[in-house]
Design goal:
By secondary structure, this protein is of the alpha/beta class. Helix content is 43%, strand content 16%. The protein has one domain: Rossmann fold (3-Layer(aba) Sandwich), CATH 3.40.50. An eight-stranded mixed β-sheet has the order 3-4-2-5-1-6-7-8, with helices on both faces. Bound molecules: adenosine-5'-diphosphate and magnesium ion. This is Septum site-determining protein MinD.
């Protein structure tokens, strides 16, 4: 399964969701890969504490002799495999985007779940990967959009991105992020998106300072602060996605949350993985 994560505006939380949802799937027992498809401003690797990876997606794009397995990093804290981008301008200028689709196809073959963190707006750079995907998640930041202009923003952004995904036959869902609004307002927005726009809302994630704090530590919030509001909300979004994608019924009780916490603790204490 390949899911593309996109957003109409920068800063909505696309990279954060890519990092945390891939962590959720990994902790739920799926072999998971996350790819930094934001080719010009790659930041995904920072969320996993990977800085300046020598071999990376850009190396693969610019040098056909690079081996895929050398560019994939196993993150022991989350169990996620990460295909990072390069932050060096030279690497970005010399890449050959034409190879992206083949690289992503080859990489995703070995995983149950692959997330691709795409560039902001209409993701022209990664559009070739849309044919490899089945799902598209649009991350919408409510916090920076006054609620009364929400409908205008939806017309401008969500409608277009949804149409784009559907043109490629993708199943499209929305994640609302950085929520600070009261429940009735959020309920209104969800109803508008689901009934008028016709797109399911798969997640509603609270604004939570634990998210940037975790990013600074290089550990996704679902592992770094598993009891935070954002971690809880992201797990719920993950449950919805898992039901949607794998058709499994999930009953998340106290025991499941406890097991998740144990599992992430175990991974941190006894890292089994090594760089692939
Ligand atoms: N739910 C949240 N609560 C608080 N801060 C968040 C939340 N989600 C993301 N952020 C912060 O917002 C900033 C932008 O997020 P990022 O994932 O990089 O956005 P994008 O990839 O869409 O540009 C980051 O500093 C991140 O830590
Ligand atoms: Mg980003």
């Amino acid at each position: 399964m390949v899911a593309i994560v996109i957003t109409g505006r920068g800063g909505a939380g696309k990279t954060t969701m890519s990092a945390n949802l891939s962590t959720y799937f990994s902790l739920s027992g799926y072999k998971t890969l996350v790819i930094d498809g934001d080719l010009y401003l790659p930041k995904l690797a920072f969320h996993f504490g990977i800085y300046n990876p020598v071999t990376n997606l850009h190396t693969l794009l610019s040098n056909p002799d690079t081996r895929l397995k050398d560019a994939i990093y196993h993150d022991v804290k989350t169990g996620v495999d990460v295909l990072p981008g390069s932050s060096k301008l030279f690497d970005i200028l010399t890449m050959d985007e034409k190879r992206l689709r083949d690289i992503v196809r080859e990489a995703a073959e070995n995983y149950d779940v692959t997330f691709i963190d795409s560039p902001v707006g209409i993701p022209f750079d990664t559009i070739s990967t849309f044919r490899l995907a089945q799902y598209q998640l649009i991350v919408v930041e409510l916090g920076r959009c006054p609620v009364h202009s929400f409908r205008k923003m939806v017309e401008n952004e969500v409608d277009k991105l949804k149409a784009l995904g559907e043109a490629y036959g993708l199943k499209v869902g929305v994640i609302l992020n950085k929520i600070r609004e009261e429940k009735p307002i959020v309920d209104d927005i969800v109803e508008y998106l689901e009934e008028s726009v016709g797109v399911p809302v798969v997640g509603i994630v609270s604004f939570d300072p634990a998210v940037p704090a975790s990013q600074n530590r290089g550990i996704p919030v679902v592992v770094n602060v598993p009891h935070s509001r954002a971690a809880r909300d992201i797990r719920m979004a993950g449950d919805v996605l898992r039901e949607w994608i794998f058709n499994v019924e999930i009953k998340r009780g106290l025991i499941d949350s406890f097991l998740d916490t144990l599992r992430s603790l175990f991974l941190r204490l006894f890292p089994s993985g090594k760089k692939l």
